[in-house]
Amino acid sequence: MRRRRSPSPLRLTGHPGLAKLVTTALQMLTPPPDLTVSQWADANRRLSSEASAEPGRWSTARAEYQRGIMDAVSDPDIETVVVMSSAQVGKTEVLNNTVGYHIDQDPSPIMVVMPTERDAETWSKDRFAPMARDTPCLIGRIADPKSRDGSNKILHKRFAGGHLTIVGANAPSGLASRPIRILLCDEVDRYPASAGAEGDPVKLARKRTVTFWNRKILLVSTPTLKGASRIETAFEESDRRRFWVPCPDCGQHQVLSWGQVRWDSDPEPRPDSARYVCVHCDAVWGDARRWQAISRGQWRAEAPFTGIAGFHLNEIYSTWVRLADMVRTFLSAKAAGDEAMKTFVNTSLGETWQESGEAPDWQRLYERRGGYRFGAVPTGGLFLTAGADVQKDRIEVSVWAWGRGLTSWLVDHVVIEGGPERAEAWAALTALLGRTWPHTHGSRLGLARLAIDTGYEAPAVYAWARSVGFAQVAPVKGVEGFNRAAPVAGPSYVDATENGRKVRRGARLWTVAVATFKSETYRFLRLARPTDEDLAAGITVPPGSLHLPQGVEAEWVKQLVAEQLVTVKTKRGFTKLDWQKLRERNEALDCRVYARAAAWIAGIDRWTEAKWRDLEDQVGPAPDAAGTPTPVVPAAEVPTAGHLKRPTAPGEKRRGGWLGGRNQGWLG
User: Fold this and answer.
1) Helix, strand, coil percentages for the chain (3-state, nearest 5)
2) Which residues 6+ apart lie within 8 Å of 419 measured at CB?
3) Which segments carry the region annotation Disordered (predicted)?
4) In contact, 233 and 310? CB cutoff 8 Å
5) 217-231, 243-257, 534-548 — which one is most confidently predicted on average?
6) 253 phi and psi angles, rounded to 5 deg
């Protein structure tokens, strides 16, 4: 019998399935070309129309500073790459190119960590999917998303030699799921302080890489607060590289800084005149010369290299941003106050914001009180909220009036004797919900919302809140940390059945980032007040100004500034910002924070111009020249609930309060 010959692995034309298998195996065994990430991107990457303003072939020369960052990722001597930068410099594209490079050239287990699971899905759909579809060398590497084999899901994609997992930093299960060689963390300063109860998300993700000797970690983010910024901490541990640019005139290199951006300001600021001035020879660069100089720049390290390459960039380096636009953003932020300036410093300069945590001088605040009397709402105050602090033997409540631009006035401070075990104390607090306060314009205002702390005797607070209803009352719980998606979150339902199911009509709880509102309060307290001469010249009180009435006690003012923001070290050696007491009693500050949270819950941070005008119409006009206010129904006729409309003027249609209190209105 004639023996059959085995088919040669190179001649398998009669076995197409086996031929494909052998071809794939040979491709995996063939060493990839010795390319860096930037070389791969220039040779292969295609930008998609729905993901880029400049679709088509990728060119690293378009933003030359990206070359050093991408090539650091493919440098075998570098384990960790840190990018602390502003927006608009293309840092997300660096991450995208890193993913594409490893899928095509160096297949590995890859994990991309976004701040939230929603962000992870958005990146997968809007950034990765178009790149995988339009970059020729990636086509076919990942299974068709319509296939049923489960290898191409939104948050998990398989390819020959590895896989891509996309997770949110708020999901501990995703961070602890599988070994990872390439870890890419985007916007790390937006990560929560802890992934559930598991701890710091970055540390959890790093643990996934410990089994790989050739692991690679990329941390990218716009910075946030000094002392609480993950990316700044990581950058300080790196060799701290900055991009040095040669002057087109004198040739001297320099780091581009905001202090060298100039514009004409006489008589009014002219952003269109913005230009960059060389720090060495005072040569003037327009946008075109600036972009030309940046194309010849180079990275230089400030510290010895220890395995971590750090890169810092601000928006001045961006080849997509004009200096005139930066100046407009700066002038707008400067006019809007510290909160807007913080955004400019973070997102345009790529630097951390230093919170002013030093306690204002209480005596200066005490001497500045006046302009209206205690227990009354002055002109400008349009609605009231209250913050209640429950103590062992009393309940303290501060009532604040709020106006446009978060300007506020202390209206009243009430101390209810008796702790949470006393029914009389809760009855007195209930009565406060129905009380009204006189307005300078002649109307009377009731409470729009009262926020009450649940830190002491939470069951008693929930029981009282259930009895009066949650339309006007908001139980709150303070949480630490500045890196919160919103200063107030919720509500969450805290009542449960015996089976553990949440009761949707039960007690509900709001969480409050107290550190954020304390910083805001101190910032408002530091705002300069115009003098009488300034007021006569038409200069107005800045938005956010915090006013105290004549008659407020010195002890209350001391409590308002009883804490200070300090930088402390944790047990693990990291630094963070923390509010610490300067004196024992701080109820006034706590009540202010809760009243501010109540205003946030009521919607003050999101109101439109139409709603503000509606409030002003409800309050009524200011007293006339003779000092005669709008007629008011006598206080004795105020209903028990305390929500009485002002009298209807002739020809005016009566309308209800649109915020809604216990009895559908809070303007008396």
Assistant:
1) 35, 25, 45
2) 390, 391, 392, 393, 394, 425, 457
3) 618-668
4) no
5) 243-257
6) -85, 155
φ, ψ (nearest 5 deg) of residue 28: -70, -30
Residue 196, domain member (yes or no): yes
Q: Which two tokens stand for residue 40?
A: 């791969």
Residue 661 token pair: 């209190």
- Average pLDDT in the 338-346 region? 84
Residue 267: is the preceding peptide bond cis (ω within 30°)? yes
- Quote the CA–CA distance of 351 and 344 in Å, as a whole number: 9
Compute φ and ψ for 158, nearest 5 degrees.
-105, 145
> Under a CB-based contact definition with an 8 Å cutoff, are residues 205 and 188 in contact?
no
State the total domains in the chain.
Answer: 2
With beta carbons less than 8 A apart as the criterion, state whether 68 and 83 touch.
Answer: no
Q: What is the DSSP string of 381-419?
A: --EEEEEEEE-SSEEEEEEEEE-GGG-EEEEEEEEEES-
Specify the DSSP element, H or E, that contains 424.
Answer: helix 423-433
Q: Name the domain boundary from 221, 238, 272.
A: 221
Cβ–Cβ under 8 Å, residues 308 and 299:
no
Among 249, 203, 209, which Cα is nearest to 230's? 203
pLDDT digits 0-9 by tens, 288-299: 999 999 999 999
Nearest to 114 by CA among 226, 216, 195: 195
Residue 467 resides in a domain? yes
Look at residue 629 and tell me if it is in a domain.
no
pLDDT reported for residue 506: 66
Which residue, 372, 410, 377, 373, is CA-closest to 666? Answer: 377
- pTM: predicted TM-score of the whole model, two decimal places: 0.61
How many angstroms separate the Cα of 216 from the Cα of each of 199, 313, 357?
22, 21, 38
Q: Which amino acid, one-letter code, is at 282?
A: D
Question: In this structure, which amino acid lies at residue 295?
Answer: S
| Domain that residue 545 falls in | 370-551+587-622
Give SS3 for 75. Answer: coil
CATH no. for residue 155? 3.40.50.300
Cβ pair 657, 666 in contact under 8 A? yes
Other beta carbons within 10 angstroms of residue 397's beta carbon come to 25
Among candidates 266, 285, 265, which has minimal Cα distance to 275? 285
179 within some domain: yes
Mapping DSSP to helix (H, G, I), strand (E, B) and coil, where does residue 84 land? strand
What local confidence, expressed as pLDDT, does residue 38 receive?
A: 93
Which amino acid is present at 460?
A
Classify residue 176 by burial, with Cβ atoms within 10 Å: 0-12, 13-18, 19+: middle
pLDDT higher than threshold 80 for residue 386: yes
Residue found under tokens 């559930």: 196
Stretch 90-94: mean pLDDT, rounded? 89
CA dist., res. 519 & res. 401, Å (int):
19
Residue 588 · residue 556 · CB < 8 Å: yes
Four-residue CA torsion sign, 205, 229, 605, 387: positive
